[in-house]
Amino acid sequence: QVQLVESGGGLVQAGDSLRLSCAASGRTFNSGAMGWFRQAPGKEREFVAGITWSGGSTDFGDAVKGRFTISRDNNKNTMYLQMNGLKPEDTAIYYCAASPSSYFNTRYLYRQGQYDYWGQGTQVTVSS
Question: Is the pLDDT of residue 29 over 80?
Answer without folding.
Answer: no
